[in-house]
Please model this.
Amino acid sequence: MHRKRIRHPRFWDRVVSAEEAASLITDGMTVGMSGFTRAGEAKAVPMALAERARITPFKITLMTGASLGNDLDKTLAEAHVLSRRIPFQADPGLRKAINAGEVMFIDQHLSETVEQLRTHQIPAIDIAVIEAVAITEQGGIIPTTSVGNSASFAILADKVIVEINLSQSDTLEGLHDIYIPSRRPSRQPIPVVSPESRVGFPFIPIDPDKIAAIVVTEKRDSSSTILPPDDGTRNIAGHLAEFLGNEVRQGRLTNELQPLQAGIGTIANAVMHGFIDTPFHSLKMYSEVLQDSTFDLFDAGKLDFASGSSITLSQAKYQQVITDMAHYKHKLILRPQEISNHPEVIRRLGLICINTALEFDIYGNVNSTHVGGTHMMNGIGGSGDFARNGHMSVFVTKSIAKDGKISSVVPMVSHVDHTEHDVDILITEIGLADLRGLAPRERAQTIIANCAHPSYRDDLADYYRRAAERGGHTPHLIEEAFSWHSNFRQHGTMKPDA
Ligand code: COA
Model:
C-alpha cells in the first residue's frame, strides 16, 4: 500500500522504522516538525524521540506550525526532550513545563517564524519531520491536514524525514497551495488577490536527495476539543450578527460581508456557527484554522469558499468531510501559515477578523495569552497577524470566567497582546462595544456599559470615575490597576470588596 504513496522506486529503500529515523536527531539539534492546531503533525518520530530520551536524556529545540495533537507536546515535555519550543502550543502538560521555567517557549506571531528562519535571525533547522499523504515522482511532498510551516521547514532543513500516514485520505491531494515568498528586500508582491487565488504548487518542492528517511504510519489526527455552542456563545454570535447587519444598513458592508477570519477554540467556533442563522450569504473565509463551523456553513449554503492553513475537526465531522471531500474540495485551499497570516494579504483582502481574548481592559487592550499576567495559556498564535492588519478587528470573550470569580473586563490587562490600537470591536455575551473613532475616555464608558458583567459593572464604573477625576488621556489609578488580579490571587475572587 505505501508504495502507491511513494511514487518513485528510488525512494523505496529509504523506508525505515520510526526509531531509525529518530536516530538522525541528536542532542542540541533544531527540529522543524509539521503540525498545526492538532492537524497533520508528524506522529511516529516524536514518540520515538520521547522513548529514547527516557533512556538516554537529550534535548532539542522544536519548531512547528502551531499546536500538536495526539498528546505529543505533553509526551515530549514529560520526557524532558524540549529545551525550546516555538511558536505556539495548547497542551496542559507542556503549559506546565513552560510555566515551571523548564521549557523556554518563544511565543511568536505565526506569520513570522519562517521569515526569521530564512534570514538566519533564529537558529537554522537541522532536520524537518513532515507528515505527508504521498511523495510525488519528483520527490515533492504532499502534506496532509495542515501546511503550517512545513514547506519552509523542508526547504530550509539539511535533511528531511517524511512520515507517510496511510490513515490520511489521499483525497487530500490537491488541496494545498504552496507558495514561498521571494527573498527580501527585492520581494515581489504575494499574488493572492482573493481567498480562491491559487498561486503555488500542490506539493512542497524540495531537493529529493534531502529525504533522508521515510516512516510509514497509520495514526489518525486527534479530534478537536472544542465544546458545542452554549447560551453565552450564542449571545456573542447574536451581538456580532446584529452589529454586522447594521454595517450593511449603513452601506459600509454588503450581505456578502468581507472575507472572514476566525480564531481557535470553543468561542470562535461557536461565533462562526452563528452565521448560519443570519441573512449574510455567499461568505468567504481567509483564515488560519478551519474548524467544524466552516463545514457547517458550507452545508448550510452560507459559505462559498474557505482558505486556511489547517483543518481541525471533531471526529464525527472529520469522517463526514473526508467521505464527502469531492463535494468540498473545489471550495478549499490550505496554504503555508506565512501566507494565510501574511499582513500584506490580510490588509489587501480587508478581512473581518474575529479572535478571542482571555481578558480586556476598560480602554480596549487585550490579553489573549497570560492567565493572571504571568502564566502562559496557549500563545498569541495568529491573532496578532490578523488583528493589526484586517479591515476590522473583533475580540470576543465571555464577561466572566471560573463561575464569576474572574471578570474578563478589568481596569488594566495584566499582559498585553493586542494594544487598544489594534482593537475595533469588543463583544461579550452582555453586549458589544464599537470602539472605532472613540478616544480612551469614551472607550472606557462604552466598554463598561456594554460588555462588563452586571456583578462587576459598578466596580469598574467606580474605578473609572475616580481615575478620571485624577486626569490623564488614559486615566488610571496606577496603585490600584492590578488590585483585581491580586485579589484573585489572594482571595480566589476578583471582587474588589473580597
Ligand atoms: N482568566 C483566567 N482564565 C480564563 C479567563 C480569564 N480572564 N478567561 C477564560 N479563562 C479560562 C476558561 O475558564 C477556560 O479554562 P478551562 O480550560 O480550565 O475550562 C479557558 O480559559 C479557555 O476559555 P474558553 O472560554 O473555553 O475559551 P476558548 O476555548 O475559546 O479559548 C483562548 C480562549 C483565549 C484561550 C484561545 O482562543 C487562545 O488561545 N487564543 C490565543 C491564540 C489565538 O487567538 N489564535 C487564533 C488566531 S487564528
User: Anything to note?
Assistant: The chain is about 30% helix and 20% strand.
